[in-house]
Structures are given as structure tokens and as C-alpha cells.
Amino acid sequence: MDKRLWQKTYAKLPSWVCPRCFKGRLKLRDKSMKFVEPDWVTTKLDENDLRGERSLGRFSAFLRCDEDECHEIVAVAGDYVSEYDPYFDTFTNSHDIKTTHELTVKGAIPMPPIIDVPALSADVVRNHIRAAESLFFVDSGACANKLRVASEALLDQLNVPLTGPNSKGKIVDYSLAQRIDALDKTLPGHKDILDALRLVGNAGSHEGDADFDFVTECFMLIEHVLAELIGQRHGTMDAVAKAIVAKRGKA
Ligand SMILES: [Zn+2]
């Protein structure tokens, strides 16, 4: 995950990875960027003598994948704030205006991928992660909640048990925290990350909103844990499954 591509606001739209081919980069189509200032804003700016100095409203744009075989189109929309600063250009010897935009993306269709999902990931894990990504610009609380669900699906894929004995020896349904502990006993080293995802998901469930930076970091965490548990380390998943089966077999 390239964190620079995922910001609260942008001066210009970044070169996200294409959601169709996952190889190409998305580039702004010529003349597709539109800024529209609502009348009520124009009136307010006039009243405050700011017309020509700033503008705000809605923007829309089309991005195109730069991969020749693909050329997928992504529609993007959101809010903008623009500032216009007059300056004297000594090169052309004329007055000019420097325009700066602050773009807050509210949606991208189809949504570009935020993280790499390993090929060996279960479909249900991948689907929850892609669903979390589609909520990234829309609702950070719901997005965080989806990441928590994705981490639960990851535990399912790793065959971490859903039930186990409580302190009295009775078999009960495990909470997510208990399942994370169960994984940690057979395969240590991932508890902190999975706990972080569990907690950010809790924030999403209970508070309705999660801090944008917190959610961004959670995408980094789940990408890391996916790579560790089912991605680059070939054979790790088998080892996890074997260790759990061996442990359960003894119980
Ligand atoms: Zn593409």
C-alpha cells in the first residue's frame, strides 16, 4: 500500500492502481475535470468580496487506465475548495493567477484497490476487503467495521476454531478476541495487529465513525498480516492449519 495515494484531501487526483487490470495506473482524462460552484456559494463570496479569490463546490472527473490492453474508466467525484493567487510572471512579463485546489474525494466508481490481496486469499476475505475499500471515501466507520469482518474471515480461512472451552471447561462460542488468542498460541507474532483491527472495527460498530488516518493504518496492517499469513511466506498457511489441527487433536 502506498499511503501517499490515500489522503483526506488532494491537490490533484493521484495515480491510483487500476481496479480492473491491477497493473495500470489511472490518469486524468483530458478536459474531464469539472468544477461547479453552487449559486449560494457565489452569493456568499460576493457578499464577502471574495469572488475571484476563492471558490468551493463539487467536482467530477474521469480517470483512464494507462495499460494499453485495459483502458478502464473510473469516475471520481467530491468537494473542492480552490484559491486563486494573482502574481506577476517575470518570465512572460505579465500578470497571471496561480490556482490551488483542495479535492476531497467522496466516491470513485469502480473503486481502485487500496491494498494487495494475496492470490491465495479466500474469496470471502477478498470480498470483505474490496467492500471495505469501496467504503473508504464514503464512511470510515463502516469501512473499519468491514476490515474487522475481513480479519474474522481470515481467521476462518486459517481454521482458527469458532468455539472452545471456557475457564470452567464448558464449550462456548469464542469471541474474536479469544480466536485471536487461539491463533497466537499456535502461531505467535500476529496478535497485536489482529487486536488493532478488532478494536478499530469496534470503533466502527459503536461510534459510527473512525478516524481517517486510523483506518488508513488498518489497511496497512491487514495487508501486512495477509502477506505474512497467506501471501509471500509459502507454506505458512499449511503450517498454521497443521499446528491448529495438531493442537485440537490433542484436546
Ligand atoms: Zn487497467
Protein architecture, described:
- It is a single chain.
- By secondary structure, this protein is α+β, with helices and mostly antiparallel strands.
- The protein folds into two domains: 3-109, no CATH class; 123-250.
- The chain contains seven helices and seven strands.
- It has helices at 39-47, 123-134, 140-157, 176-186, 191-207, 212-230, 236-250; strands at residues 26-28, 34-36, 54-65, 73-89, 94-109, 163-165, 171-173.
- The strands form two sheets. Strands 1, 2, 3, 4 and 5 form a five-stranded antiparallel sheet that branches. It has a two-stranded antiparallel ribbon with strand order 6-7.
- Strand 6 and strand 7 form a beta hairpin.
- Helix 4 packs antiparallel against helix 5 (191-207).
- The longest helix is centred in the C-terminal third of the chain and has 19 residues, at 212-230.
- It is elongated.
- The structure holds zinc ion.
- Zinc ion binds next to loops.
Record keyword descriptors for this entry.
5-stranded antiparallel sheet; 2 domains; alpha+beta; 40% helix; single chain; two-stranded antiparallel sheet; 7 strands
Write the layout of secondary structure elements.
Elements lengths: L25 E3 L5 E3 L2 H9 L6 E12 L7 E17 L4 E16 L13 H12 L5 H18 L5 E3 L5 E3 L2 H11 L4 H17 L4 H19 L5 H15 L1
Bound molecules: zinc ion.
The site of zinc ion has 8 residues, from loops.
